[in-house]
Design brief:
globular; homodimer; Arc Repressor Mutant, subunit A; DNA-binding; 3 strands
DNA sequence: AATGTTTATCGTAATATTGCAATATTAAAA
DNA sequence: TTTTAATATTGCAATATTACGATAAACATT
């Protein structure tokens, strides 16, 4: 085993889990916070911002890219990373919807 | 390796990643959606709601409990599971803050 | 007391993730 | 063209996660 049984869940459930998975590592949160902080694309220097080796950072960037959260545009020698605003907004709504679905009418606990 | 280097990141970054990790599986999303849907505590029948074996469900419930998202109160024979509203609200704000930090002033891409 | 019900834990197999050294790739700079 | 710089990929070791059968624990019911 070890493989998630995605087939047995709804598309939506798998989607939410996939976004959460992309955010489920402090290095990836750090990358996103850096991109949010500088409020622009980053051409280089992401590796220097993180306490991890270059291949490891590259791998985390790849996961964020695969999740659609960031995009990387070749900019001459370097690569320019940006948060994809549309995806970011879509994901914001997905989490907002999930978290706001609660209704304070519990009957126990 | 395989072990996340939590020490090298801020508490906040680790916290966000930990919440995301708890949400990073469709079964756990399904459990939470069920708890949200029935709008009450669930004493039993969570296992029947999911396409997974009982020990697997129990394990997922444990992870949600460890993350503080749900709590389980012993109710005679069964155990009554609830979403912890305070933690839920706290997590909602954490994600809201993360997602709303974006600023549409990009200079490239 | 014996049985049934519900949930947890143990043990284990399969798979995934994390991290990095080594190496490859790509393009700018010298 | 050689060198330098930036990023990606490969390969591998360590660890984590997912899943479930078997079993245990706790309590209710008979």
């Amino acid at each position: 085993m070890g493989a998630t049984k995605s087939d047995h869940f709804t598309q939506k459930q798998n989607d939410i889990a996939a976004i959460a998975k992309a955010l489920a590592h402090p290095a990836r949160i750090a990358i996103l916070e850096y991109l949010l902080k500088v409020d622009a694309c980053i051409c280089g220097d992401i590796v220097n911002e993180l306490p991890l080796a270059q291949p490891t950072v590259s791998q985390h960037l790849k996961e964020l890219k695969n999740a659609g959260i960031i995009s990387g545009n070749i900019e001459g020698n370097a690569i320019c990373y940006c948060i994809d605003e549309k995806v970011w907004e879509k994901n914001r709504k997905i989490f907002e919807t999930l978290f706001e679905r609660i209704n304070k009418k519990k009957t126990c606990c």
